[in-house]
Amino acid sequence: MKNNISPSQWRKSSYSNGGGNCIEWAPAHAATIGVVPVRDSKDPHGPALSFTAPAWSAFLAGVKADEFGV
């Protein structure tokens, strides 16, 4: 996905604890077109990955259920 989302639309993960392993997502953009853009907060001009809303929801549910063992 081309990163053409305005800087004010990106939100840092609520699980960010000030460390360097943070992601950002654009919830307003997700609500508009049903695609969830995600990027590395350390590289705001780098690429953004795109996920369908159902795929992102399934991923978050897996993280919350500790299915990935990380």
UniProtKB/TrEMBL annotation:
InterPro entries per UniProt: DUF397
Superkingdom, natural source: Bacteria
Domain DUF397: 9-64
Name of the molecule in the record: DUF397 domain-containing protein
